[in-house]
Amino acid sequence: MPDDAMESAPQAPAPVRHHETVVTGPMEHDITDGGPDMVQFVDGDGNRLPTSPANEAYAKIVEDLTGEDGRSMYRDLVLVRRIDAEGHALQRQGELGLWPSLLGQEAAQVGAGRAMRRQDYAFPGYREHGVAWCRDVPPENLLGMFRGVNHGGWDSNANNFHLYTIVIGNQMLHATGYAMGVQRDGDVGTGDPERDTAVMAFTGDGGTAQGDYNEALVFAGVANAPLVFFVQNNQWAISEPNYKQFRIPPYQRARGFGFPGVRVDGNDVLAVYAVTKAALDAARAGQGPTLIEAFTYRMGAHTTSDDPTKYRIAAEVDIWREKDPIARMRGFLASKGHADEEFFDSVDKEADELAARIRKACQEMPDPPKPAMFDNVYVDPHPVVEREKADFIAYQASFEGGK
Amino acid sequence: MTAQKLSLAKGLNAGLRKAMEDDPKVVLMGEDVGKLGGVFRITEGLQKDFGEDRVIDTPLAEAGIVGTAIGLALRGYRPVVEIQFDGFIYPAFDQIVSQVSKMHARSLGHLRLPMVIRVPFGGGIGAVEHHSESNEAYFAHTAGLRVVSCADPADAYWMIQQAIFSDDPVLFYEPKRRYHERAEVELDEAAGAPMPLHGARVARPGDDVTVLTYGPMVKTCLDAAGAAEGEGKSLEVIDLRSLSPLDTDTIFASVRKTGRCVVVHEASTFLAMGAELAAQVQRECFYSLEAPVMRVGGYNIPYPPSRFEEDFLPDLDRILDSVDQALAF
What interface predicted TM-score (ipTM) does this complex get? Predict the structure, then answer.
C-alpha cells in the first residue's frame, strides 16, 4: 500500500455464498439494481463497501491507488460532465446539429479510459466523450462531426482513439482485427509494460444485439485476442429497455464466447477502473479477451433529437440520480479526507474555463471550402472524382462574382 | 525463361505468393483458405509456406472477416480477404459500404485501408443457389471503392498484386468458371511492364462493332468475334478489366472508331455496368454512334436454377444477335 494510500482496506465480512447465475425472464430485469455479481467499491452515498466475493479480486488495485489518483479521477469526471453539458448547450443554441449526451456515464468512461496505457487503442461508438478525454483527445475534435464540417476527421493514431463509429457495432470488429494485428506484431505477453498492448471496444446495451458485436466476440475468442469489450449498459437503446435487447445480461453471455464477463457498477469510478485495469493487464499478458458490462444509466436523452418522456418514467431517473457518479466520488474523497471544498471549487473553476474554451472553438470553427468534399475519397488519383471536382469548381466560379 | 503456362487459378496463387514474399504485412484471410487452400484452391500451399498467422482460417462469418480485416489494415497490415462465393458477400455489405469505402474520407486522409476483397463471381458452373451471382455493380456504385475483374491468367497474376499494393480498397472479381483456362504468363516484370490496374485492354481489334465486356464474358465475346469474322463482321472486343474507375479513353476511342457498341456481362442488365457504359458512351460518342448502345446480360430475375442458366447467361448467339441489331441500324 502506498504511503499516501487513499484508504485502508475495510474489514472483510464473513464470506457469503457467491450468487449463482440465474436466467431471468424478460420482464424480470431490475434496471436499478445490478445484482450480487456486480463489482462495487463505493456506494451511492460515497461509503466504501467492504470486500465481498464480487469485488475481492479487484480490491488490491483500489488499495494501491493514492489520494492524488482519486482527486485526479474526480477532476476527470467533473470536466467530462462539463464537456458534455457544453456540447448539449451548443446544440440547443444551433451551433451543433446533434449531441449524444453521456450524462450519467462519466464514471464508466473515465474508469475505463484511465485504465488504458498509452500504447493501447480504443474503438469508440459515438458517445465516448469521456474515453476521448482520458486519451487526451482535445474535446474540440469531437465537435466537427456534430457541427457538420466533417465526419470525425481527427488523426486516430495521434492518441490511439479511433474515429467515432455511428453504425452500431461496426467498430467491435475493427477493434478485434486491430487486436489480431497486435498479436501478429508480437506486442502481447512480452512482459514489457511499454510494449504489451491491448485494445478496447466500446458499445452499449443496444449494440449487443448486433451481428457485428456477436461476430467480434466469436473472432476475439477464437484468436484469444488482447481485447476488452466494454459494454455500457445504460438501460436504454433509444426507447427500448434491456428486456427488448436480451434475455441474459451481456456479462453472462461472455462465457458462451469462451472468455470471462464481469458486471461492474458503472457509476463507481474506482470499481470500473479496477475491473478494466485487471482485464487490460490480462489481455496484454496474452490471456485473451474479457467482456465488461458497466451497469449504468443514461440520465439524459439518447441524443438531442430524442424525447425520453415518451417512453420512460421520471421515478426511474430519480432512483438513478441517487447513484450519481460524481456526487459519490466527491462524498468518498471528502469522507476519507483526500479532498476539501477548496479542491472541489478549483475543479469547478477549471471546468468553467474548459467550457469557455470549447464554446469559443466551436463558434469559431470555419466551414471547410466547398471543393474539400471531393478530397480524400481515394488515396491514389481517381479520374471521376478529379473531373467532378474540377467541374464543380468551374460551375461555382460561373456565378457572378464567383461563389 | 520466365514465362509459364498457368491456369487463371494458378496465376492468382502465384500472384498472391509473390505479394506475400514482397511484403510481410500481406495477410490472407477467409473461410477454408488455410489447409484446404480455399474451395477453389486459389490459396493452396500458402498457409504451409507462410504460416497460420499470415493465412488465416477465419470463423464462418463474412461481416466478421471484412470487419476484422479493417482492423488489421488499421494496424498496418494489407489483408486480402476471400469471399467464398459471390452470393455470400451480403453479410459483409454493411462493413464494405459503411466502413471500407468511407474510412479514408471520414478520417480526412489520416487512415488508409489497403485491403483487397476477392470475390469468385458469375455462373455457368451448374451450382446451387447463391453460387453464381454477378454483384459487382453494387460496389462499383459505391464511392471509395475500386472494382476490377481479371479475365485471363496473366491479368490474374499481375492484377492481384497491383490490387494488393493499391493503397485504396479493391474489390477483386474473379471469373470462377474461367479458373481452369490456361495461358502463357510472363512472370518477370523486366520482360515488359504489366498494364496499369485501371486500364482497359483491346483483347481483339476490329472495325465494325465495339464489344465492351469483362470477367467471364471476355472469352465468350472473343469466341463470338471469331464466329462473326466468318460472316465478314469485324468486332473489337475490349476487356474493361477495371469497372471502377473505367478507362473511358480506351472505351470512347474504340466506339468513335466503330460507331457501334454492345455491352456484355452476366449481371442482370437493369442498372448494371451496361447502363453506366451506355450513358457515358452516348454522352461522349454521340456524333460517332450509328446505332443505340446495346446491352446483353442476364435477365432481370433472380439467378435461376442451374438447368436454366445456359439460357439465362449471354452466349455466342445472343451476343451476335445484338451485334446484328446494332449493324442493322
Answer: 0.97
Q: What is the pLDDT of residues A74-99, one digit of tens each?
A: 999 999 999 999 999 999 999 999 99
Q: Are residues B315 and B231 in the same domain?
A: yes
Same domain, B174 and B211: no
Same domain, B221 and B272: yes
Q: Can you tell me whether residue A123 is helix, strand or coil?
A: strand
User: A5 phi and psi, to 5 degrees?
Assistant: -55, 135
- In a mutational test of the A interface, the residue from B77, B108, B111, B162 whose CB has the highest number of chain A CBs within 10 Å is B108
Residues of chain A neighbouring B64 (CB-CB closer than 8 A)? 173, 176, 212, 215-216, 218-219
Residue numbers of B annotated as active site: 131
DSSP string, A195-211: T---EEEEEETGGGGSH
Q: Establish if B245 belongs to a structural domain.
A: yes
CA distances from A112 to A182, A202, B87, B152 (A): 20, 10, 40, 53
Q: Residue A342 and residue A348: Cα distance in Å, rounded?
A: 10
Reported as a single tens digit per residue, the pLDDT across B13-58 is 999 999 999 999 999 999 999 999 999 999 999 999 999 999 999 9
Q: Is B35 exposed, middle or buried (0-12, 13-18, 19+ CB in 10 A)?
A: exposed
Residue contact A152–B64, C-beta within 8 A: no
Nearest to A113 by CA among A129, A100, A126, A98: A129
Give residue B1's pLDDT band: very low, low, confident or very high (50, 70, 90): low
Q: Do B12 and B113 fall within a single domain?
A: yes
Please name the residues in contact with B151: beta carbons below 8 A apart, sequence gap of 6 or more.
Answer: B175, B178, B203, B214, B215, B216, B218, B219, B239, B241
Contacts of B47 by beta carbon, 8 Å cutoff, 6+ apart: B33, B34, B35, B37, B54, B55, B57
C-alpha cell at A227: 481485447
Candidates A219, A374, A375, A389, partner chain B, best to mutate (most B CBs within 10 A): A219
A375 DSSP 8-state letter: T
B209 and B167 inside one domain? no
Residue with grid cell 476475439, as numbered in its chain: A220
B117 to chain A, minimum CA–CA distance in Å?
15
Residues of A in contact with B27 (CB under 8 A): 184
Residues 121-180 of A with CB under 8 A from B: 150-157, 162-163, 165, 167, 170, 172-180
Cell of residue B277, nine digits: 457504359
Say what the pTM is: 0.95
Q: Do B245 and A152 touch (CB under 8 A)?
A: no
Residues B160 and B215 in one domain: no
Query: Is B179 found in the same domain as B65?
Result: yes
| CA angle, residues A68, A74, A75, in degrees to nearest 5 | 90
Q: pLDDT tens digits for B143-174?
A: 999 999 999 999 999 999 999 999 999 999 99
B109:A163 CB<8 A: no
What are the angstrom distances between the C-alpha of B76 and each of A156, A243, B51, B70, B115? 13, 40, 19, 10, 10
Q: How far apart are CA B82 and CA B75, in angstroms?
A: 20
